[in-house]
Write a structure and sequence with these properties.
D-Maltodextrin-Binding Protein, domain 2, 251 residues, Molybdate ABC transporter substrate-binding protein, elongated, signal, metal-binding, alpha/beta, ModA, 2 domains, ModA/WtpA
């Protein structure tokens, strides 16, 4: 289910509303940016957070929004091809990296990527249509193509998967609660609040996948000028500082 966060002006309601459909992995960063933008511009900012594949489906089924923010190019490219986006406004604005996260007490003693293929290890990934699920499969393919791990590595890891989530926030919550031994998530998902509940295992550069995040204005935007200003704010020095605070990388 989508999470709606409505930033409220201290001085009362605004006559303008900006609706932003946003990938779930950006919840912390855009929750803060939405509030800053609202405070500075007197616009009610409504943020709809969910898996990118879910918010894409909402747009395709007729949901009206002003800005669409994706965790990969695939879903944005599809909306552009289908005529939902104002294509000239679409661009990559930040990047992210995948990591393996484990509960703080690391009950399965995950120390290396070989450990993920050991029988009995409980792993959570994303569904393949979710960007973080797709990125996970790309990482596993790179590992399996290395003789250190071998061609059966991906199959061995996937046989340990006990759950495939539609939203990365659901995955992170389950790992923090100790419901699995390991999961593939974004580095930005380890917020200061979660740093005592989960630990991360870095993915070496040769196996890593860079997650690219595009944003753009939807053609059916009911507030196109504000949408353009919001996109400009996200790409500004102030917006980039918020993204970096939450673990995202500048383009």
């Amino acid at each position: 289910m989508a999470i709606f966060v409505i930033a409220s002006l201290a001085g009362g309601s605004s006559s303008e509303e900006l609706v932003v459909f946003c990938a779930a992995s950006l919840t912390g960063a855009f929750g803060e940016m939405g509030q800053i933008y609202e405070d500075e511009n007197g616009v009610d900012v409504m943020l709809n957070f969910d898996g990118t594949q879910a918010i894409r489906t909402q747009v395709e089924q007729g949901a009206i929004a002003d800005v669409f923010i994706s965790a990969n190019k695939k879903h944005m490219d599809a909306l552009m091809a289908e005529g939902f986006m104002d294509n000239d406004t679409v661009s990559i604005f930040t990047e992210n990296r995948m990591v393996v996260i484990v509960p703080a007490d690391n009950p399965a003693d995950i120390q290396s990527f070989s450990d993920l293929a050991e029988p009995g290890v409980m792993i959570i990934t994303g569904v393949k249509d979710a960007p973080f699920g797709s990125y996970t499969l790309q990482v596993l393919d790179k590992l399996a193509n290395d003789s250190t791990y071998g061609p059966k590595y991906r199959e061995a890891v996937m046989s340990n998967v006990i759950s495939q989530e539609t939203s990365v926030s659901h995955l992170v919550s389950k790992i923090a609660l100790g419901e699995a031994d390991a999961g593939f998530a974004y580095q930005s998902d380890i917020s200061p609040e979660l740093s005592e509940q989960v630990s991360k295992v870095e993915i070496p550069d040769q196996y890593s996948v860079v997650a690219e995040y595009p944003l753009g204005r939807l053609k059916e935007s009911e507030n196109p000028d504000q949408a353009a200003r919001f996109i400009e704010f996200v790409r500004s020095t102030e917006g980039r500082a918020v993204l970096e605070k939450y673990g995202f990388q500048p383009v």
